[in-house]
Design brief:
Elements: H1 4-19, H2 29-37, H3 42-54, H4 60-73, H5 82-89, H6 104-113, H7 136-145, H8 150-154
Helix pairs in contact: 1-2, 1-3, 3-4
Amino acid sequence: MRDSTEKAAVQEAIALLTYYGFDLAGEAAELFVERALKQVRADWLRLAILEALYQGRYKGISVQQLLELWQRRGMPVQHFNGEFERLMCGSLPGVVQPEEEIPEAQVIEMEEEAGGRDMRLHDPINPFTPSEVRSPFQEKLRHLAQPESDEDTLN
């Protein structure tokens, strides 16, 4: 039986393989993970998948090669940082991200500072919309980007 940390690592490993379209030679991600778990721990498998992503190697064989290398070394060797890990795992479909545990008193204090808004939810990012007003610099760039007409070359 697996503990909750191991279950989360297994769930995330399957989601990473599926979401990023790893070539598993026709094998389902769940079967690939179950087979790999007979050889290594779930946290190593998850790290190997992330390392393969970091190296741009989107194949199951690459994950297996990393795991074999790490087993010979006796430890995983990862080159990615925490920011890369957060980017790759932050919004995987089908993976429940645990909410940060914040004491209720702190949540109430944060909401009061924010004018009553719930700070546990992120405000959507407003998309950039360029101004309709054209600057002299924009006009110069537009002029430079336009191909010369026949009239300009004759003068």
